[in-house]
């Protein structure tokens, strides 16, 4: 490495985790951009969630990172009831695929902007779901760990989406 570009191992690991998160976002985005919206009103497999529900679910879960990371309020708290608190219900009213895609794009842009401005100390600091006392005992319960878990969460749902026979 040059004298001007010194990157620590911690910074490199954080960069790799953020890249993995971004790659999963791209996988989900690519999936939802390749078919007409109507296709996503069907279950991904018999007896399983609909693709529209999975998109709303991932948005709602990722949106929770904003307050969890002390980055501000959730952008879409209205999605929690329909996409985190209850299972998919084809009879329930919900936003359109187009509206969810717009929320997905805005949320990813917002999170990416925040993530780009976070230094290693911020990533390794506690999030709001762990008390300072518990964090002192379990420092692995940090923001970077949450991002790793959210990346895995997206990968799991991307696998479900792949079950769709479009």
Q: Span between N and C termini?
A: 47 Å
Structural class: mainly alpha
What sort of overall outline do the alpha carbons produce when their principal axes are compared? globular
Mean pLDDT: 93
Q: CATH superfamily, please?
A: dinb family like domain
CATH architecture: Up-down Bundle
Looking at the structure, the CATH topology is Four Helix Bundle (Hemerythrin (Met), subunit A)
Helical stretch count? 8
Number of structural domains? 1
| Low confidence ranges | none
Residues in helix, % = 55-70%
Major β-sheet annotation: none
Instruction: Estimate the strand proportion.
Output: under 5%
Output the helix-strand order. Answer: HHHHHHHH
The CATH class is Mainly Alpha
Rg, please?
17 Å
Number of separate strands = 0
Structure at a glance:
The chain is mainly alpha-helical.
Tell me the layout of helices and strands.
Layout: H1 9-33, H2 51-63, H3 65-68, H4 79-83, H5 97-116, H6 120-123, H7 132-137, H8 143-161
Q: What does this 3D model show about the protein?
A:
The chain has 166 residues and is mainly alpha-helical. It has one domain: dinb family like domain (Four Helix Bundle (Hemerythrin (Met), subunit A), Up-down Bundle). It is 58% helix and 0% strand. The chain contains eight helices and no strands. It is globular, with a radius of gyration of 17 Å. The protein starts with 8 loop residues before the first helix and ends in a 5-residue tail after the last helix. The model has no long low-confidence stretch (mean pLDDT 93).
